[in-house]
Design a protein that fits this description.
Distance between the termini of chain A: 37 Å
Oligomer: homodimer
Radius of gyration of chain A: 31 Å
Strand content of chain A: under 5%
Number of strands of chain A: 5
Structural class of chain A: mainly alpha
Helix content of chain A: 55-70%
Amino acid sequence: MAEDASEELLLAAAFVSDAQYNRNIPFKTSPEAVRLYYLYNHWIMRAATYFFIFLNLSLAVFEEPAVYPLPFLATSLVEVLCLLVFFGRLTHFAKITPRNVFWKDTKNICIVVAILLSLTDLAIYGALRIYNIKSIRWSRIARPIFLINFAESRQIRRAFRSIRNTLPEITYVFLLFMFSLLMFSLMALKLFGERNLQTAEGLPYFRNYLEIVFDLYVLVTTANSPDVMMPAFDFSSWYALFFIAFVIVNTYIFMSLFLAVVYNNYKKHLKNEIRKLAYMKHRKMIEAFNLLKEEEGAQPVVREARWKQLVKLVAPDISNSHRELLLRISDDEQKGFIDKKSFVQLADLLNIQVITLKIRSHPLGQWMPHVYKSAVSQFLRSMVRHRFDTLIIFAALTATILNTTLRSTTKYNSQQILDIVFILRVLRLIRIVDSIQRFRVIMNTLINIVPTMLTFGGLTLVVYCIFAIIGMELFHGKIEFFPANSNAPYALECGNPALKDSLFARGKYCKNNFNNFASSFIVLMELTVVNQWHVFANGFANVTAQPAKLYFIAFHIVMVIIIVNIFVSFILEAFFVEYSLEKSEVETAIEQKIQELGMGVQEEVLQDEQLLDNMESAEHNLEGEVGTKTQPRGLVFKIASKRYRTVDALLQRMFEAEIPPEDEGPSFEEILNLSPTAASPSHLTSERAV
Amino acid sequence: MAEDASEELLLAAAFVSDAQYNRNIPFKTSPEAVRLYYLYNHWIMRAATYFFIFLNLSLAVFEEPAVYPLPFLATSLVEVLCLLVFFGRLTHFAKITPRNVFWKDTKNICIVVAILLSLTDLAIYGALRIYNIKSIRWSRIARPIFLINFAESRQIRRAFRSIRNTLPEITYVFLLFMFSLLMFSLMALKLFGERNLQTAEGLPYFRNYLEIVFDLYVLVTTANSPDVMMPAFDFSSWYALFFIAFVIVNTYIFMSLFLAVVYNNYKKHLKNEIRKLAYMKHRKMIEAFNLLKEEEGAQPVVREARWKQLVKLVAPDISNSHRELLLRISDDEQKGFIDKKSFVQLADLLNIQVITLKIRSHPLGQWMPHVYKSAVSQFLRSMVRHRFDTLIIFAALTATILNTTLRSTTKYNSQQILDIVFILRVLRLIRIVDSIQRFRVIMNTLINIVPTMLTFGGLTLVVYCIFAIIGMELFHGKIEFFPANSNAPYALECGNPALKDSLFARGKYCKNNFNNFASSFIVLMELTVVNQWHVFANGFANVTAQPAKLYFIAFHIVMVIIIVNIFVSFILEAFFVEYSLEKSEVETAIEQKIQELGMGVQEEVLQDEQLLDNMESAEHNLEGEVGTKTQPRGLVFKIASKRYRTVDALLQRMFEAEIPPEDEGPSFEEILNLSPTAASPSHLTSERAV
């Protein structure tokens, strides 16, 4: 019975933990499966998975065409190792999840297929290599699949789902836009085609319909403005009107419309996802409650002792005093048990970072006040307090030492590195900026979006990887970079006579090529910034064939029209949320409780203490300044700045206000009738959706 | 007494008309003032004012530096004429508005000052001209004041107010952005300054701090990407990271933040304005009601006869049947009078375009069925039905005739014009696109934003005018355009040796100069598109002095960061409204009434009739197709497509849902206690605010 109870506790803790971190993995509820599930979620396992995913992706740097060449044997061995790890992780997952659920999930099937494909391709490539036949490692394009499809990457998957949902509407706008583009091109052909005009490079101007369509598409991105207009404008000023109309309709109106459609869908879609997450969280908390509940009168409750065991299991790192605080909030009237309503709150409570402030003077100050107040001690203390600055000063010191060492052994002068470190010192100004109230909303937005930038980083990585691998197959070796004083033939034309007199060669863009993974990434980054992308497109089309431009157009549509717009939508929404919301309900409840218990610390005390300390967030040592208010336990609590949140928390906050209060009616009854095992199939549906 | 009643009616009609068109002019309520007010609002007077405003603005085309030079005497006479008209209009306004109100309104003071300044400047310039001393017509910069400050331009004024309200927040973001820019520039100087790198043009790379700041500012706008990076990138690939970080922080994050701040303020501000407008509308309707009310039992009401007189005065153009319909809606139970609640609705009712459909066969069809059904007649009928196409065919015909005539008299071949007309014919495809439901939301948005584009056109015109006039003073004659085969000295350097080897000359941008008003506008348009703006800035700085770049930076901040972002905000909001709202409440009420009265026409009948007829909106002749449902009067009504709205109506719809239902409580009582004259001071406050 006791063992049974501890197993129930373990299962309940797994539910609570899943609710806290918004994990939606349908695991079996047998004791062994639950233990395996704990192992599966252990941070070392997760970190290892990520490590091998990125190792697998970074293989492209070492494989031909390589930035740092390694023998084929080495890279293929590492790849096999990665694939084995992925297979192991998947097997682990298969053991904790019901079999039918496992095989219905496209994510798992994707991973299995990708592993098999990669192995097959590797074998074929290796075999052909022995006979010196050069083939293409086409399965490399499948590598980002691992990044997307492992359960860890739900943020990236959500972003992809958001894109997929936006596609139909984008398509409609895109069709209209293409219609407009084709019409304008037809007009341009009729207007300018027979005037025998020439571009600044002396080429025929607006003679070929397809070229006009490309040129005007480039004009929509503004990259060839005003060059594309100049020949016509020089001929007659009135022709400028054609281009003005074109830019207004296509660049300003249609491009804004793309943003509007993406933003609208992004918001709508995100709201749905968050609603689903909130629903799942609630459901898991109810299941945990049902596992632990006992009868108290007619009311099902969880007793204090069990609750404490649960919290210790779920959050082993929080301090005793913090746990006491949570208990006081959950068991408001100190009845010795927690009812369902309060219990369900636990996941949210655990997500709020509460800072424990120790009100006591430094032991050294008590024992050796003389030493403590000495100049050296004060210097050390101020150093600790200004951790940020101290770090920089130490970095500068290290750099100076490194610099001196380097200078004595090599001829390299790293004065610059030291300069940079001192500039970082100037960044201290940010803290002053931050202390001004008007800048805070802006700074908060900026800091809050950093974690989500990682999601977009992942998204971008996937798109870049795919395009880089295609790009390397298409354009590898066509354009080469030679140092300034090289004697190679056609050094000025990037080693390719087809680029003679081209804007590409004239702009000295030779180093922008697809000769290895790193270069490809930089080219794609430049294409994302958009400017001069037509010079790249023309350059690479010149050294291969004209249809190569399609590669660049496709990249522009995927990256700029879709992903950058989603990024902009996210920033817009994040700013609006930061601007309009102040604190969430649960946070307010906790703060109120802290105040009620008389364990709060006045905001002003912290703010007055040191204007520049705002950036520092970890445990403060108030060192007696607050000690004048004698607290029974010598402890005060403070909610951590709302700056440090998880991505999901920020997203949930975005739509918290608009989500109806958890569809109390039917779902409650439904959940109460469900045993944990019976609930699994519904987990499945939501897992496939979330 | 009868005369008194008609004067009251006139005054009430003025209130209702003001409410209908959202005019907020505080006029005196004396009978003469009301008559003058009617004259003031007459469309001819308003059109004349606009005509002279634009005539005054377009003088810049004919004054030195002129596109089409006219003698100084001619332009100055026209200017004096314009100023006289403005003075007359202002005097007219002074007569209808209370004196103290008139002088408290900054708009009027602005106009008076602008008139005086212009006259003084003109006199000085003329006097100096007699002695052949060349001076600057600095007062020309004041001309847009007339466009902004006459009561007709309230949309433009609202846009300017919106900008002014956004400025403080923009400033905070801008300061942070400048801080980031300066930090990155400092880092760039330290990183690259001592490496002795060279740009593609062979100039020193990143040596001077101010130049770095400018180059990196240009990089924020992406205009010099990737050129600015290439020298460092060629030196070491790792340096690309610096530029990637820079672009992410400044281009992607900060520029999105600018959009977020502008959009947020735009929305907030617009909501306030619309709330004020709705309040003022309500208030004016109450005042009109109080003028016309009689007692019916204990309830104050307006009798049917008076109501009809009022509607005839306010909207003389609507048909009798339409007026009957409005009466039936207002006097729901046919009691012979209208109560206050229904009366207040009148302004909204009048704003809804109701189409009267005549259900009768064509008289010719009744009298001469043979002729009516002949092929020629059917052709003519189909022509009338497809008005759009017919217009184009006639245009093509006219063009052909014109073409033949021209060809016989001159050598000019206008085949192209004819081609264009035939391309317009292809635009008929738009109607097919429009008939597909999924494209309709997009098309509706596009059509709805057209009128508001005029506001942005006005805004842009004002900014362009000011910058063009300054630009002409700064850069006039410095850069000149020579035709391709010119023998002028330095023809390839735009007539200025300072441009030798510059990107400006190499791009053949010579025609982009500030030598006259039209050229300046085109340069400013190109600067708005952003691409290559640094080439312009450097070019004009080369022929004058380096600080000239500030002119271009200022233009970028005003036009791109502020106005274009407001434009994008408007399109975003318009799209969301179109997407989420379907019909307003009042429209629904009218439609319901039409259906109740059995005078409605089924949507399907109209849609089935002719798929392609969707674009045609005026009175339909259903020609018996609907006649099968015999209507007592042979008339059916239909609400005009929601496409054809005024700007204010669209704006009001934007926030209608969010506006609280007209603060019924205190304002009602307050208004009831106010006589029309006593209400004037409050009009004043709102007029200054709206």
